[in-house]
Amino acid sequence: MKKWIMILCLLLLTGCWDRKELSEIGIVAGMAIDKNSETGEYIMTSQYLRPAAESTQTPTPEQPFLVVSTTGKTIAAVMNKANYTIDRKSFFAHNKVIIISEEVARDGLIPVIDAFQRGKEVRGHVWFSVAKDIEAKKLLQIKQEKISRVPANALSNLFENGEYDATTVDLLTYYKEVLCAGEDSVVGVLIREETDIEPYERVKLSGGAAFKKDKLVGFLDESETRGYNWITGGGASPVQGAMTLPSLLEKDKFVTVLLRALKSDIQPNVNEDGQISFTINVEQKLRMTGQESTVELQDRKEITDYLNDLQGEAEKKIEAEIKRVIDKAQKEFQSDIFAFGDILYKHYPKVWNKEKENWSETFATVPYTVNVRAEIISSGLLQGPFKPQE
C-alpha cells in the first residue's frame, strides 16, 4: 500500500511534460507569406522578438526583433524549417498578424490556412491581411513612424484601431467564411505609403481584398470598403471613424461627423414567380464634431431644418457607396462578399437548394433595394456655428 501511495505522490509532483522555458523558444510576433515565382516555393518571413532588448532592467542595444526567411514547397514544411534557422524553437502562439502576398492570395489560400488550422500552432485570433503592390515580407521591415519598437505590434494596432474605410478580419473568421456556402470573404489590405518626412514611408491599412472561395479576385478602394462595412456591420471591428459632409451653409465649407452606433440588416425576398431580391436596411447614428461655416442660425427651427438636411446628405453618401460596392461585387468579381446566399439559405432553404450550384451567376444579376436612415444624435450646436465677433 505504501508503495502505491509513493508512486501516486511522484506522479502528482511531476511538472508539465511539454513545458518549454522562455530561454528555449523564439517568439514569433508577425509572419509574411510570399512565393518564389520561379520555383513556386513558399517564402515565410518570421519576425522574432528579442526580449533582452526590451528589458526594463538592463536592455541590450540591439534591435528588439529579428527577421528571418525560410523557403519550402508547403507551409507546414516552411514552418518546420524555421526551427533550424535560429538558435531557438519557433513559437507561433503569440503571433499577432499574418500578411499574405497578392500572388499567394490569387493562387488560393486553402494550402496556407490548412497548415495553420491542422497544425494548431497559429491561433485563430491573429489578424489576417493581404499585401498590395509589395512583397509581404517587406511590410515587416519598414521603419515607419510608430510608438512600438516592434513592427508586428505596430501592425496589430493598425487593425485594432481600423476605421470604416478598411476591413479587419482574423484568421478564424476567414477560415469559417471559406467553408461557408453562399458567402465569400473580404480581408484587410496593407500597403506601403510614401511620406514627406523621415523615414519617408509607412505601412497603411486601407481598403479590402475580395475573395471568391479561397482565391483573391480583386481589391476594394476605401469608398467601396465603407459601403461594404455599412452592409455587413464592419466585420471583426465595429464601424468607426469620421465622415465629411458639405456644410450646406457656405460653399466649399464642410461638416465633420463621427460614426456612432450602426445597425444593418439584409432581408431576402422571393416573390410568387420565384424571383429573388434583397433589401438592405442601414441605420447610422452620427455626432457632429466640426463645422467650418460661420453662418449664424437664427432660431431652433433653422437649426432643426439644417440638421435634417445634413442627415439627408449623409444618407445619400452612404447609399451611393453601398450601391457602388454591390455593383462592383456583382459585375467585376461575381463574388458574394455580403453573404446574400447564406442569408437566402437561412430564410428560404428550398430556394437556396435550387440556386446554390449556380449562385455566382444568380448573384451577379440579383436585384436589390437600399434603405438608409442617418440620425445626428448630438450636434454640438447651442445657438449655431461659432462666429468671430467684430
Automatic annotation (TrEMBL):
Record keyword Lipoprotein present: yes
Matching Pfam families: Spore_GerAC (PF05504), Spore_GerAC_N (PF25198)
Keywords in alphabetical order: Germination, Lipoprotein, Membrane, Palmitate, Signal
GO cellular component annotations of the record: membrane
Subcellular location(s) of the protein: Membrane
GO biological process: spore germination
Keyword Isomerase among record annotations: no
Topology versus the membrane: Lipid-anchor
Location of the Spore germination GerAC-like C-terminal domain: 206-380
Domain Spore germination protein N-terminal, chain residue ranges per copy: 18-178
Family: Belongs to the GerABKC lipoprotein family.
Entries under PANTHER family matching the protein: SPORE GERMINATION PROTEIN B3
Protein name as catalogued: Spore gernimation protein GerC
Higher taxonomy: Bacteria, Bacillati, Bacillota, Bacilli, Bacillales
